[in-house]
Structures are given as structure tokens and as C-alpha cells.
Amino acid sequence: MSKQSLLFYGGKILTMSDGIESAEAVAVKGNEIVCVGSYEECEASLQGQGEIREINLKGKSLLPGFVDPHAHLMMLGMAYSWADISYPKVKSIADIIAVLREQKKKTPAGSIIRGFGLDQRNLEEKRYPTADELDEVAEDCPVQIMHISGHNNVVNNYLLQELGINKNVDDPIGGAIGRYENGLPNGQLFDSANDHFAKKSGVVIGSNGPNIHMPDTPENLQNLVAVGQEQCLLSGVTTINDPQVTKQEMESFQEARNNNLLKMRIVMSILSTYLDELTQLGFRSGFGDDQLSIGSIKLYADGSLNSGTAYLSSGYLDSSRKQGYLYHEPERFKEILVKAHRQGFQTITHAQGDGAIQLVIDGVRASQEQSPRSDVRHRIEHCGLPDPAQIQDISELKIWPVPQPQHVYQFGEGVVRAVGDHGDNFSPYGWFKDQNIPIVLSSDAPVAPPNPLQAIYAAVTRSTLQGNVVGADHRISLTEALKGYTIEAAKAIHREDSIGSIEKGKLADFVILDKNPYDTSVEEIPTIEVSETWISGEQVY
Fold first, then answer.
1. Which residues does the UniProt record annotate as the domain Amidohydrolase (predicted)?
2. How far from 349 is each of 209, 276, 298, CA to CA, in Å?
3. Which residues contact 130 (CB under 8 A, 6 or more apart)?
């Protein structure tokens, strides 16, 4: 923690608070903001506090550090260490094979060849690759590619055999194994079927979510923390809520902290696999400190809109899997959510389709009827395609949706093709505004990069990667978008008392931008550069 006194001035200071919207200066003592106001007021607040370091912003903008309430830190590090097979770099299955062949040249003989970022809807073939096609990369070693959503993988025949997946292996609850017409596995593993990667060594999570926790050495896991953290800090993100933490992530975060490698703040959402253990030990939301804490329990209701496994009543136009599937039977899901609520946890539930969103609504209603609690802020992660009738329930039950505007930017057009015109309501911020439901932005990194400025642009414009607009009625204002990635995001993780805005008594977490978003054209917002990132009064980028 910094012990110095700091005085920021000479630029536009956007506080994101409901009181002073902008200020001339900010004074910091140690890790805390002690004054927000004029230069004279801030300077006076530091008198007698020792040497004052003055920081002239030289016309740049100072904002509270961005808070990302849904970002998978170690998975982000993993994505940057695998071959990039995302669109538009990769536009066909042949492109994927070519990229992986190049990756093979960099990979030790016999080691696994991996790629991240598959998006079948943006491929020329409009389908997933198969094991036979990945055999064109290698037949004598394992090959694995992960979908951009993290909800499914495709592997070659070598790895299928290594994982013990054959025609006699049944589909698991909350998942599926892709098959050729003759019934043999075709290399495609959806949602809970990804547990096969961890059965020999690693974290097995059952029907509690897609297994993104690939087995690795402690040294490599620490590298994933470091790489993921670096990507967040260079984007001005000072706090994240990691929404799927298992024993693997918790141990890795603690080790990084013990070795003074952890700079940012992490609020952990523990996967529901561990709910019984946490209950027996008496844990609840809020355990920990300002840097590393337990925030909530993470549940999964359905799969992914982008991979075609979310539970939609309308079904899909581009898949034989018409409605996706649920991870739990409705009554079992309700039982888990009620138990977490009763124990004192906030819950955050992955629910993309309206069928899955209804499970959350019913679970929260039952929880409050059985064990009334105030200001819990149970959340729906993504809340991709709710039915309009569900919006009133979300408002009345005070549920917080946490969507990702970059998903509209990256995948919006594919969703519209997959579900029809209803896809224009993907991440329906306009409906939330109409019912006074909080507006929160996040990235779901590495599904989208942890780039708040791109997310803000996407939320304000509803533009897509292809240059079109999906759901213009769901645009929000620049102020709503900025607050959605700062103070409203902090509220979503119950941390608004310490972060999310520049106010006296809060932690000195800042991002310095080279331009003022309000003085920049909307189209230029994604090009605004992060000049510096500060946490607890120390410059970390």
C-alpha cells in the first residue's frame, strides 16, 4: 500500500458519483481518497501530511478504475497462451487447420496443440469442425480447440481416445457429445461433457457448469493469473468479479497474493459444486478483504446462445438442437438457489434463454418467500434473451441482470440468424431502463476482451463487428454506459462503499484516459487509450 500523498489535477476528473459529477482535483493519502474538489481544497487537505507528489494530468481524463463484474481471469490468461482462432482472423475450417499447423511448429513434440476462439456462426461453413478435420493438424498428438463461449470444445480422434470417449459413452446431464450419423463421437464436446478433460487430473464440476478449468502445473497456473491480470490492467480494469471459481482458481489467486504478484482486486464467485462445503464451514458473501474476497455463489441454468445450447422457448433456426438444455431440473435448481440464499450468499446465475431465466425468477421468488432478506442483489449473468413478460418480475424481485454489450458487437448478427427477429432483443438494456432495472456492463473475458471502452461503445451504438446495428431500441446513453462499468458494476458486487466512484473515503483506484469520452465522437470511443492505471494510490500500469 502506498504511503505517499498524491494530488491529481490539470485534466477532466469524472467522478461517476451522484454528487460532484466532475472536479478540478483529487487528493489521495496512502490508499484512500481524502478530498475531491478544487485544487486549493485538495492541496489544503494534504497539508501537514508530509511531502505531496503533484500529478499533472496534462488535459487527460481521470475516472474511477473500471469494475468488471463478470470476467474469467485465468481463462483470459489461457486464451492468450493458446493459438488465436477467433473471427475475423479465422473465417473457415481450413483457416483453423492452417493456424493450428503453425501452432504445432511451436509446440514440443507430443504435447497438446490448442486454439481458442472458435465461432462456428462466423465460419464460411456455418458449422463446427469435426475430429476427422482436426486430424489434418495431427494424428499422433492431442489437438483441442475451445469455443469462444467456453461452453464447448472440439478435439481430434487422438484426444477422443485419450479421454476415453467412444460410442458407448452417454451424454451427461447438462451437456452433449457430438456424433456422426453412425453414432461415433465426432469430437464435439458441449457444456458438462467437458468434464472429461479433468477426470484423470484436474477439477471435476459435474452438472454445475461447463468445465473451463483445464488441468495444468502450478507454475503454468500462476502464469495464467499474471497474463490475465496484465490484460485487465492495461485496459484500466482495477477490480473483477471472477464468476466461476473452483479450488484451482482460489489456490492460484492465494498463491499469487502470497508472492506479491496479485495487484488487482478480485471478488470470487464460487461454483455451486462447493456450496455444501462452504455451508458446512459457515462461509457467506463478503468473506475476505478489499483485495481478495468471496462475493457470491455461481450457478448455471443453461448453455450458450452463441454455441446454440441456451434454453430458448423459441428454439434455433440453425441447429438440430432446437431448445438447448438445462444444467439442472427446475426443482433441483430452485433447491440450490434457495440453499445459497438461506446461507447468506448472493447468487449469480448464468441464464441466457427465457426458459433458463424463468428458473432464476422462480428461485429468487421462492428464496425470498422462505427466507426474506433485503438488498441481496441476486443476479442473472448475461440475461441474453428474456421474454418481455419476465422483465416486470426481474424488476419486482430486484434481480440484477449483468449482460455484455460486446457480445452484441461480436455475435449479435449470428444470434439474429439463429433465433429470428427476437434476436434484436439480445441483451435488452432498453427494457431494463423502462423498468428501472440497474444498467451494468461487463466483458465475460475472454469471450470478449476486457476492454471497457469497446463495451461502452457497443452499448451506446448497438453496432456489430460487421458494421450493422442490432436492436437500436436498446441503446443507452454514454453516462449510463460509463456508470455501468464503474459505480453500477461496483453495486453489482456489493462494493460501492469502497470503489466505483471518485469520492472521499473510497479507495484510490483510477484509470487515466488520453481523451475525455464526452469530448470524443462516439465512433472514436474504442480508440481512446488507457494511459495509466492506479490501484490503492499506486501506479500499476
1. 53-541
2. 10, 17, 6
3. 154, 178, 180, 186, 187, 188
| Model confidence band, residue 390 (pLDDT cutoffs 50, 70, 90) | very high
Where are the alpha helices (H) located in 268-353, listed in sequence order? Answer: 275-281, 330-343
C-alpha cell at 378: 441476486
Confidence category of residue 459, pLDDT binned at 50, 70, 90 = very high
Backbone torsions φ then ψ of 166, nearest 5 degrees: -135, -175
CB 386 within 8 A of CB 428: yes
Q: How far is CA 424 from the centre of its chain?
A: 22
The mean pLDDT value for 69-84 works out to: 96
Q: Which CATH superfamily groups domain 1-65+500-540?
A: Urease, subunit C, domain 1 (2.30.40.10)
* pTM over cut 0.85: yes
Q: Is 171 buried (19+), middle (13-18) or exposed (0-12) by CB count in 10 A? A: middle
Give span(s): CATH 3.10.310.70, the chain.
87-147+151-203
**Cell numbers for 416:** 439474429
Query: How many angstroms separate the CA atoms of 145 and 114, rounded?
Result: 6
Q: Is there a contact between 443 and 406 (Cβ–Cβ < 8 Å)?
A: yes
